[in-house]
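Dissemination and training. As part of the outreach component of the grant, students in the summer workshop were shown how a complex can be specified as a set of sequence lines and then modelled as a single object. The example used during the hands-on session is reproduced here so that future cohorts can follow it. Participants entered these lines:
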Amino acid sequence: MKIAILPGDGIGPEIVAQAVKVLNVLGEKFELESAPVGGAGYAAHGHPLPEATLALAKAADAVLFGAVGDYQYDNLERALRPEQAILGLRKQLGLFANLRPAILYPQLANASTLKPEVVSGLDILIIRELTGDIYFGQPRGVRECPDGAFKGQREGFDTMRYAEGEIRRIAHVAFQAAQKRDKRLTSVDKANVLETFQFWRDIVTDVHKEYPDVALEHMYVDNAAMQLVRAPKKFDVLVTGNMFGDILSDQASMLTGSIGMLPSASLDANNKGLYEPSHGSAPDIAGKGIANPLATILSAAMMLRFSLNKAEQADRIEAAVQTVLSQGLRTGDIYEAGTTKVGTEEMGNAVVKALG
Ligand code: IPM
Ligand code: MG
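and obtained this result:
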């Protein structure tokens, strides 16, 4: 089993190193190969997604990804910006299904900014379509405004679009995920305003016929944003497009109080996937040894479960994370009085130790 390790920028290398440590003590034969990506890719090869890095990712059975982005790359032209690496990997590897769980660990019940009764026991799954929508729709750019009150001025524009097959395949992923959970699916759209998302609603409704055991509800994205903070536990699985999913998944992650705990999986049609923490590269704390490695370690667990068919190893890692939390170990982002503050390395070592 070959795993491509793409640490990236900022805290990426520190947190990925902890996940690699964990993978190496499982007693499995993994072939791990690293390559630069994001700003590190640009620095090494002049491109955020160097050809050799893309080739490695394509050849591997799974990709473990850290995070990309750093201040010194902020003023590069768009095509060379670190974010293009993750967008390019998603598109080129066909990773259309993004699974972002938001789970509140009982040990961290006080970490949320919401009242404990609103969030305790929270366990929801956001499924975000990841290779379509306004993120990738053509045409896009800056042009001369062709009509209306601002005719003749410059205007920026993007294209929101979804093909039927694109909606069908993400709907199938979502219904099947719901079948394995509480059998409730909320499809989030903006059908009251956007043609693209009326079409989305129609297709999801049609796919539902194949999953009569799942309860489907449709919800407008603005209402979904409200319900996510009002009564988040009412949700089980949410499915939505790329843009709405980007926003709602950040919002959902903060219900748990700490984005530093949340893993994610981006899967293709054959369950090959890229696994990354839901948080970013946090350049402000990079190199200080204080970042929380648990989201990346939990991403490695998701990788074992979804792409490498090693569910029992995934269970072991998840149990080890619970153990270190129960021991009271906390990185700064989840620290509270009465617990023990540890750094990135110490946290990684504690997980390794808990694995026995
Ligand atoms: C995410 C990030 C990316 C996105 C950026 C870095 C391009 O925000 O994974 O949610 O918008 O998809
Ligand atoms: Mg985002």
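The first strand starts at residue 2 and ends at 8. Students were then asked to discuss how this feature might be tested experimentally.
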